[in-house]
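Section: Multi-chain targets

For targets with more than one molecule, the full set of components is provided together so that the structure can be written out for the assembly as a whole rather than chain by chain. Components appear in the order listed by the source. The example entry contains two components.
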Amino acid sequence: MSKEFGVKVEDIFNTMEERFRPEGAKGVDDSFGYDIKGRGRWKLTVKDEKMTITMDEDLENCVAVTVTDPETFVGVNIGKVDPMKAFNSGKFTVKGDLGALGKTAKMFKKFVAQVRQMTTKDYIVDMFGTLVSRFQPSGAEGLDVTIAYDITGPDGGQWMATIKDGTCSLENTISGTPTVKLEVNAPDWVDLMTGKVDAMSLLSAGKAAIEGETQLALKLGEIFSPYVDPMDADKEPEQELIALKKVISVNQRFATGPVLGKMLKGLREKKILGNRCPKCGRIQLPARESCAECRVRVEEFVEVGPFGDVRINDIAYFASPDPLTGETRETPYGSINVLLDGCKGNDTFWHMIRRDQTFQLKEGWNKEKGTRVRPVWAEDRKGELGDILYFEIDE
Amino acid sequence: MAHRKKNRNVGIVGIGQTHYSSHREDVNQPEMIHEAVRIALDDAGLSINDVEAVVHGNMELFEMVFQPDLWHVLGTGAYGKDSYRITTGGTTGATLVAAADNLVASGMYDVVMAIGFEKLQEGNTTAGITNMADPLWSRKLQTGALTGSTGYKMIKEFGEERATNAAMRMRIQNDKHACLNPNSHRAFGLDFEQIETLKESSPRLVGSLQLIHMCSQSDGACVMIFADEKKAKEIRENPVWIRDHITVHREETFNIFGFDEEYPVHMTHRFAAEQLYNRNDIDDPVEYFDVFEMYDPSAWWGLDWLREFFLLEGDEHLKLVENGETAIGGKIPINPSGGVTAANPIGATAMARVAEAALQVRGDAGAHQIPTPVNHALASGFGGTMWTVLFMLEKQLNW
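Its structure, encoded as tokens over all components, is:
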């Protein structure tokens, strides 16, 4: 549907009821017709300080019928077109009782075109004004949390949503220690909520910060339905785009073969077995059938460690959910490469450090040695890497 | 000297890329692919009837759709044509180009279309990367593509201040380039004055690797069309010639960095570069090449790998970045497109490197075209635990 001055003819008629002033309609008992060229005919009926507006081809018994084109009609209603000028130029004509039509002027509040440009402040007010109504109990099952929004800048403010027992309430202040706190500049928050920028981009650029439970922040899309931009509300209804959700779960069973299998069996017996290349002498951890660099078969197994020196401690501050278990590792954690006793150069063994010792390790570099560590074995060993739970400092 | 086994010359005659973004929920996979196919055909002035074979690829673990070429056939145009499927993880896009080049060079086909795509939003990227790891051993420890090891190594070698500044400078330079590329997924408008602020504010992922350093997860497709010399010259005035390419693998390993100078690790990037330059008589790659589109999954890797790809020593690579020589307008611009930190639809990413390098050679890169003539371009792909694909492109058939 086309628009004039950004407003549809229909907007004028559709808002008549909410703009109706009963006190201005006292004593009026008439019908008024509107014939908008190319758009249709409407009939306004006023009686007993009530009104109805309908699309109606038959305007026969109306006391006055306004005939005009859409541009003039909208223009006059929003104050863009001078009514006298339109009337005088013949763009706006009235059939019937012109005096009676004058009564309609008092019956309606002025049509205010929806603000075409909402300011950042308008958006922020609207976004938090609609937050509680966008709460989705189904996405918040079992949650007992507080979510603080620290929207910075002159248009910002502080809000805190409390979610408990499937309900949501909002305060205009942040108190206590929220479960998660989001801090972002007001214009960036508006861009995020209106889909102009994604959260990862804001986080990447350091334009947004999350304090507390990051995982909860990532779930906000389930807890609240998406914000609908009022600027989009009068857009043509678009086709609903359906997305299908699927989950794949596959049972797998892998043969390990005689070489790695031997090493795995060793783990079950608390032994770490690597195999040594007959040509370059490197010890492969895990054991492999051949040395890729020398292209020779590797037959000789050697027991190494279990003590060793830390060469690398890769401290992870961010963990994606583990797709194998659905669990998210607690962060920070240290992923370490250990040079086990008996190994040299880059023959390191990859594993994890005990969580509470994440920040207590010294990494090796050239001849400089790193912290001494030892493996901690699982009670029930199955012949897999997990038979070593983690390494810990050898004290 | 060309690759000694290349039967005939192969030209790039058509290039098409979708806009890269975090979500393409408005289209399904074949529809998204078709957008890039259409652009590439239009770019070449060809119809799908002119294409004899289609090579299709992505990393199927990401969306968990097997044989997606079957589902996609209406979008790719492969119906009734010879069709090949290639999936080599991060290098997929570059391997697709290598395969298409080989198919045309062999004489089997005169016109071949290669398609790389990914819709990372439709699956789980971390799950894909985790399941890429050796299932018998590494899956347990693997949680995605993040590592701080390169940052650690560079800080040890060059000191914290210099290394972190250079990495952030590399990142901001890429972002400046991305802002000139309308296809970018991420273009923040960062400035070099923000180096200190970003070092403070951007969340840490692993070690010195911060969120701002890391590549995105994007949706998008890239399509390229290749033709033999005779056809290519008929199709367009300025085909870009594939001079040579090389692929180098390592066994799966995460001990790829080397922390003991007595036991240096020979990186696949350097190994590939040595072989490629040697057989093409390139003595000084920084001098020879006019532009380099690198598969740089993070700013740390991009910075570190410059040294390997250009066979540099010591801090020569840092100096190039610090002196602005790797920016558009510098001596050897790196990733005028914005690189992988600007857009990373993984199966298309490595192809986009070759495509962007070719656009630079053609002079058709638009706002991110480098101002000086581009006669020789380098493009790389990266994947797995050190797989390298490296391409040389030429404006003239005169080597």
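Residues 10-125+217-229 of chain B form a domain with the Peroxisomal Thiolase; Chain A, domain 1 fold (CATH 3.40.47.10).
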